DNA sequence: GAGGATCGTTCGTCAAGGCGAACGAAACGA
DNA sequence: TCGTTTCGTTCGCCTTGACGAACGATCCTC
């Protein structure tokens, strides 16, 4: 991984973890951490000093970590994971190849259920790519509640204009233009426009 | 760009979390680790001394960790996760739904090579699913030309506000709010804002 | 109650993590 | 060529994690 992702993902841990759990390699994956740190930093196009500054650690420390020397504390690694926008688990867990199966016949059939909610499919996922991109146009009124999708699904929303309450039904977040949110698509979630002319970009990932 | 991310991640949460970006729990979850350690140990019905012995660490150390004091190194936590048969991620991440929010203006801003172009990484891709989501903020002026990425890469752009010329360098297309374009990322492409305050959502896929 | 065994915490010591500063290497420009 | 800037590594110093031993508390049995 890069990193991240998890956005979903991996979420967690869970996810990941899951798997990983049980049999972990006896040795702590310091080398893997070193690799991940450097890869993610380069990926972001940042210098060692810059990342260290943002994470609030010494660049000498980061240098040692990237070279595989050292055994970082949880706080140090956490700060780096936050700065690099990578899930903590992903830094530590050896990136295992995950084979995912997309079952035949699966597909998110999408239709606007409510008049005050319109989603336009911009890019549909080919058989093996698993992401759909929607442009969502919504007006204040009924919220659009979605039943959970397949396990592991993740949704990303970037609000373009207006205001909206988005996220898990339990705990929605108010978004303003430019705000971004990601949440597990396999739990009940909601999209409720708070202003007329609310637009958003929705990226759905299925696994 | 790419980056990673997790944006979503879960988060980072998952772990990681997030990153800097967003606000994950800014603080390292030492309290959560403490709780998890004790819960898992009790679940296994083992004494503190026994777990310490199996993990090869001092029981005093484990005692402190379970009390929330201390900031364990990766090796120490790893040894405990193996002994308790719990994924490392699970120890660190509180097993909760991960919702990640990146507010406008937050996030890892990619510095733009040009002053009039800023891309913010919202979600980065995991190792095998590769997609990065960026919020692009651009001002009229120099165009932002990108060198080709890996073969097979595809970019999707949804314009939120303003106007922009987007697409292959040879044949860019003028986008208005709500417009969408997709083009091969492995050919030279360009993003040129035509109005001040132009925002767009960029989804990169690599293969 | 005294003795023993087990539990988890606290204390003193030592090694290692983390830091700032200095250093060499490489890339520009004058 | 020299000076400047930026990169990443290396070098002492100090703080802190980790250890082992001792300690009080609890729960037994005799």
From the structure above, extract its key features.
207 residues; alpha+beta; four-stranded antiparallel sheet; 2 domains; five-stranded antiparallel sheet; Jelly Rolls; 9 strands; RmlC-like_jellyroll (chains A, B); DNA-binding; homodimer; 434 Repressor (Amino-terminal Domain)
SSE blueprint and pairings:
Two copies of one chain form a homodimer.
Chain A (H helix, E strand, L loop, with lengths): L11 H9 L9 H14 L4 H8 L3 H8 L7 H11 L3 H5 L24 E7 L7 E8 L5 E3 L7 E8 L2 E5 L2 E5 L4 E5 L4 E5 L4 E8 L2
Helix pairs in contact in A: 3-4, 3-5
The first copy, chain A, binds a DNA duplex (30 and 30 nucleotides) through helix 4.
Describe what this molecule looks like in 3D:
The structure is a homodimer of 207-residue chains. By secondary structure, chain A is of the alpha+beta class. The first copy, chain A, is elongated and about 55 Å long. Chain A has helices spanning 12-20, 30-43, 48-55, 59-66, 74-84, 88-92, and strands spanning 117-123, 131-138, 144-146, 154-161, 164-168, 171-175, 180-184, 189-193, 198-205. Chain A has a five-stranded antiparallel sheet, with no helix packed on it. Chain A has a four-stranded antiparallel sheet with strand order 3-8-5-6, with no helix packed on it. Chain A folds into two domains: 12-92, 434 Repressor (Amino-terminal Domain) (Orthogonal Bundle); 117-205, Jelly Rolls, CATH 2.60.120. In chain A, β5 (164-168) and β6 (171-175) form a beta hairpin. At the A-B interface, α1, α2, α5, α6 and β2 of A face α1, α5, α6, β1 and β3 of B. β7 of chain A pairs antiparallel with β1 of chain B, so a sheet runs across the interface. The structure holds a DNA duplex (30 and 30 nucleotides).
